[in-house]
Write a structure and sequence with these properties.
Blueprint: E1 5-11, H1 15-24, E2 28-35, H2 60-69, H3 73-79, E3 84-85, E4 92-96, E5 99-100, E6 113-114, H4 118-130, E7 135-139, E8 142-148, E9 153-159, E10 164-166, E11 169-172, H5 180-186, E12 194-197, E13 201-209, E14 219-222, E15 230-236, E16 242-248, H6 258-268, H7 271-278, E17 281-291, E18 294-297, E19 309-311, E20 317-318, H8 326-341, H9 348-374, H10 385-399, H11 403-413, H12 425-455
Helix pairs in contact: 1-4, 1-8, 2-8, 6-7, 8-9, 9-10, 10-11, 10-12
Length: about 450
């Protein structure tokens, strides 16, 4: 049967806010989304989403989840020109932690992915959500939720203009800048414990127009590594332009202009891609953005939590954006919200917060291991992070030439098979065996070269 109610309120009209509104519309007579920022009528960048100008990747799992909540979304995007990662080995160049994975034999139908720009995806989702008859988008800011101390529950929201709006449920989708921890303290609850990793990421992005026929790839990823604190991502978008985002981790400076971006491309991507970048026509100016730390507010650890309010999206966890998993994780939260609302006899906040934590933990942990062990980030590091990080460095090294390992990694990285990036003992043994064979081959080649050099010495 599920829960039902008269009115639900969502704070924020981001992708997370619209996903929440879509799910709530099945359980509440009315859903009102309040957004302080002026919203464009079409696909355009907006001031409240500065990260929207930079490259965003919608993983295959995220596309599937969003299509489930918004039927027809993917076809609508394709009709607007959004590229699809076709089942071809040359559609993607993927480099991670200094290793370029061999994708020539692993791209199958399950890896079908869509490449919308962030503004386009947000506009499509907003358009579909607001077309639902009982969903209303209101241009107004929320000052704070209203709290009924006697009932220990949130009873609605107070708008910036001073109006009190009653609600049966409030969903906080205000993003990284959420004030829910402050409100909890004001209401007599504990703040949630927080986990953070000081990734120290700085972005520099340029929009480009690349002449047709220069590159077949639609997605280019070259992540940072131990020996290279800068990386880049390139995506081909619905209007035929490319987004080129360059970045530095561990507080390394990204390129400051197009010439420096070209120089970085020369260092870290294949020559034909770097050459295409050099032949590109830059559009507009370089835009910059900083992401100092990944953050996870662990609401599931609180013994007491008020009824009538739920944290959602980046208000709970904001992941290292260079891994491209944030929008997909939000789509998973929408599923958690739906299932929690379908269970009328449980504590809604406890069930939803627990489900969110369950899906957040494995992705957060592997991101943290990669950042702390391989990318020079600062933060608390349990003893077991380092051996796991070293194992994955070896694993990615083997995946450069072993398609079985490459497929396993790409499916897990895309969150398709499991959220846990834990290879089986069989795959670990395959990794060790593969790398040992490479090592022995290198030693044999070195001995052969030394023998050849000795033969060239006069008198021998």
């Amino acid at each position: 049967m599920g829960r039902s109610g008269n009115h639900a309120v969502v704070i924020g009209a981001s992708i997370a806010g619209m996903c929440a509104a879509r799910v709530l519309s099945d359980f509440y007579d009315r859903v009102t989304v309040y957004e302080r920022d002026a919203l464009p009528s079409d696909a355009a960048n907006r001031r409240a989403v500065p990260q929207g100008r930079h490259v965003h990747l919608l993983l295959a799992r995220g596309a599937k989840e969003l299509e489930r909540h918004f039927p027809g979304l993917l076809d609508d995007m394709v009709a607007c020109g959004v590229p699809i990662l076709q089942n071809r080995p040359d559609c993607i160049h993927f480099g991670g932690a200094g290793h370029v994975l061999g994708t020539s034999r692993v791209l199958r139908d399950e890896f079908t992915a869509y490449v919308p720009s962030r503004p386009h995806l947000e506009w499509q989702i907003r358009r579909k959500a607001t077309a639902i008859p009982n969903v209303e988008l209101v241009s107004a800011g929320v000052a704070e939720p209203t709290y009924d101390a006697a009932r220990q529950r949130v009873s609605g929201v107070r708008l910036d203009a001073g109006d009190d709006i009653p609600a049966d449920l409030v969903v906080d989708a205000a993003g990284r800048g959420t004030r829910l921890p402050v409100w909890l303290e004001q209401w007599g609850f504990d703040r949630p414990p927080e986990g953070s990793v000081d990734v120290g990421i700085s972005y520099a992005t340029h929009q480009l127009r690349i002449p047709d026929g220069l590159i077949a790839e639609k997605v280019v990823v070259s992540g940072a590594s131990r020996n290279q604190t800068r990386g880049l991502g390139m995506l081909c978008y619905e209007d035929g332009t490319w987004g080129l985002t360059t970045f530095g981790v561990a507080n390394a400076e990204p390129p400051h202009d197009f010439a420096e971006m070209c120089a970085l491309a020369d260092e870290i991507v294949p020559p034909h891609i770097a050459a295409a970048v050099r032949k590109a026509q830059p559009i507009g100016d370089v835009t910059f953005h900083k992401f100092p730390a990944s953050r996870w507010r662990r609401y599931h650890k609180l013994d007491r939590f008020p009824a009538g309010i739920l944290p959602f999206g980046d208000a709970v966890a904001s992941f290292n954006p260079t891994y491209g998993q944030g929008m997909t994780m939000t789509s998973l939260q929408a599923g958690h919200l739906q299932r929690a609302l379908e269970s009328p006899d449980t504590d809604l906040a406890r069930e939803f917060n627990a489900a969110t934590a369950k899906s957040t933990y494995p992705v957060w942990t592997m991101n943290a291991i990669g950042d702390l062990v391989l990318h020079g980030a600062a933060g608390r590091m349990p003893w077991w992070y380092r051996p796991v990080g070293e194992l994955f460095d070896q694993f990615l090294g083997a995946a450069e030439t072993d398609p079985v390992l490459a497929e396993w990694f790409l499916r897990r990285f895309s969150l398709l098979d499991s959220l846990y990036m834990v290879p089986s003992g069989k795959l670990v043994a395959r990794t060790i065996g593969h790398n040992m064979r490479l090592l022995l081959a290198e030693k044999r080649a070195a001995r052969s070269r030394r023998a050849h050099d000795r033969d060239l010495v006069p008198g021998r």
